[in-house]
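Action item from last week, closing it out:
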Amino acid sequence: MAQEPPLLEVTDLAFTHLGQTQPTIQNVNLTLHPGELVVLAGATGSGKSTVLNCLTGIAPEHIGGQLSGQVYSRGQEITSWSIRDRSQRMGILLQNVETQIFTDQVGEELAFGLENWNLPPGEIQALTQSALTEFDLVEQQNWTIRQLSAGQKQRLLLACLLTRQPDMLLLDEPFAFLDAAGVQLLLGLLLKRVQQGQAVLLIEHRLELLKESCDRIYKIESGSVSPLHKSALQIPVQVPPEAPSSTSEAEKTIILQTQNLSWGGYPPFPDLQVSAGEIVLLKGENGCGKTTLLKLLSGLLKPATGQLEIQGREATRQNVVQRSRAIGFVLQNPNHQLFAESVEAELTQPGVAPERAQKLLKQLNLSHCAEKHPHALSQGQKRRLALGAVLAKQPQICLLDEIMVGQDTTSLELMLSTLKNFTDNSGTLIFTSHDPNVAAVLTPHVVTIGTFS
């Protein structure tokens, strides 16, 4: 009996971006069979997302560039197929979830894709309700998309993909913004689909999440893909040495405190009292309001109730520009705060000493990208750049919203070392993260936020 051809077979694939002389990826060979969960691993900026873009046709159809090699599906060459044709067999989740959302409301987004496949109205309604239940989005079905957290948006897009039942799922860091319960929910759903014969190829840095579940791991290095044995999984993030503190708890200066702070009709957030040099982790499940609290502290949102003091001064009525003298805020989506024409220019801002900019470029492993346009970087590199741009201004308080996602072990260590250096020099850090490795390294004071309801 002849063996069934792979769902996906890639042979000698190479791709060179527009304006580049050297290929971003080359000698890419991999296979994906029905009922397999396969991981593509590699350093930040190594070309993992480029591989998925080539498989789905986004490269070169959408972004241009030079492609060579062959892509087969069930033995049929599809290298020349359009994105639309390939989407009948593939579902893809991009790193930047906001680029894949087309409507304003949760239920409408689920129905939108099904309508595009000309399904009967009754079937669309049934599939939409089933997906809302499966992905724990029933309570949010009438919400506007902008009310969702990043993790909830990720769940929504995955629900849209899985509702269509494509042969293959190509997922670019699908666990990035999910809380612990969300990670387990998604992993269970993916394993269930794999058991039913679908295939999953996904990018992930936290390989410990998938070590026991995946069938194979490929590693991309210097643009080339090769098999990786499970025993060679990356080591845990290393803890930077902690500088001895000469300041007693009683002597620490309170730099930020809140009382009864609330927004949008929701219950008040826990009161904060944060000292200079302190590290605070805002912890809670997706949608609990962590990002909202950071926006209230930064001035991007105005509170409905409560008081905020910064450096001993009442700051509730200060606008975002006034607060930016003391507070730096790195957003979840780095695309929203990178504006310069080059990586180096992003850091070398007015008032920033060139030596400081160069030091941060080196600390965050971005010196080799100095002449590149910021939007030519990978998502992980963009997050490091956004962090560097904020730290270059030497704020007293730094707010970070899930910026440690998309980093390989080495890059994450560089970020955490840079942040430890910031706090060792009396900088105050308030951040959100679902990665337990980050909390283990930074050893923060944890403030738990309850779910909005």
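Closing note: The chain has a mean pLDDT of 91.
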